[in-house]
Amino acid sequence: MIVTGTGTDVGKTVVVAAVAALARAAGERVTVLKPAQTGVAEDEPGDLAAVVRLAGAVDTLELARFPEPLAPATAARRAGAMPVMAAQVVEAVRGLEGTADLVLVEGAGGLLVRLNDLHETLADVASGLAAPVLLVASAGLGVLNSAALTAEALARRGVPLLGTVVGALPERPDLAERTNLDDLPRVTDAPLLGVLPAGLGGVDHDAFLVAARCGLGPVLGGGWSPQTSS
């Protein structure tokens, strides 16, 4: 499964950890793959460390890391480093066949953020794997446009949109945040699969698993399961 967002800081890593935690609790072998981690030094923990802290003992794989908090293509260019290629990500995922029941590929930013100067994006990875995409959305004003554009881009490429998850709903959502929960399925033509509360990144594993079950549990009981996703 490919996990992308409507933008940065929308809760992608927390959603990835939640899906991984639920799959792991169901006895599945889970690997989380991060094609490119940006904005983190070599000796600093990145998104995958956060996933392990929240979800527990899942396997992780990071293909590249660049120090500046920029799009992967730009960060690689400025670092004088080799960028990540879509075929490289596809090959890495296929290499996990037989060792993982569920592979979650967490992108950087949104769907069409460039991985390299050949203009390859996470959409190319999804196409190469024929894998469904889970869209993590912010809750607030402006998200409907980003979500609709992402859904349109996926449809144009023939890539299935599994659905949307709101990654960080405030404790007291405002009018836009409340109505967006109803409107996201309308603008994406895909179901709202779950809602996670804001602030989960700082809780312990047990509390996180409870929150994941509350926010995403209906997904696992409603026709989607780790076994049916790539």
TrEMBL record:
Catalyzes a mechanistically unusual reaction, the ATP-dependent insertion of CO2 between the N7 and N8 nitrogen atoms of 7,8-diaminopelargonic acid (DAPA, also called 7,8-diammoniononanoate) to form a ureido ring. CDD domains: DTBS. Keywords: ATP-binding, Biotin biosynthesis, Cytoplasm, Ligase, Magnesium, Metal-binding, Nucleotide-binding. The gene is bioD. Homodimer. It is found in: Cytoplasm. This is ATP-dependent dethiobiotin synthetase BioD. Pfam families: AAA_26 (PF13500). Its EC number is 6.3.3.3. It comes from Actinomycetospora cinnamomea. One of its GO terms (biological process) is biotin biosynthetic process. Belongs to the dethiobiotin synthetase family.
